[in-house]
Design a protein that fits this description.
Elements lengths: L22 H7 L2 E4 L2 H15 L3 E4 L11 H16 L1
Parallel strand pairs: 1-2
Amino acid sequence: MCSSMSSTSAGRASAVSSQQRPVAALIRWADVIFVMERKHLNRLRAEYARLLEHKRLHVLDIPDDYRFMDPELVDMLDDLVTSCLAV
């Protein structure tokens, strides 16, 4: 990823820690939002439609069944996110 970019992960709802920033704050902070599956985007839109109005949203179509930092997942994310940002 480009050194002039910052990223963070909101994680899954079932895995969110008590120290994690609220989703609304992450949406306000982000210029671009990536989700693994369409159902994740649907959940965000159902709860935060107004905050998402002017955000670039991308569904990566990656099944959300990988372990944290799985090398295969990291490679897929790197490829897909890089190609989305290059457009």
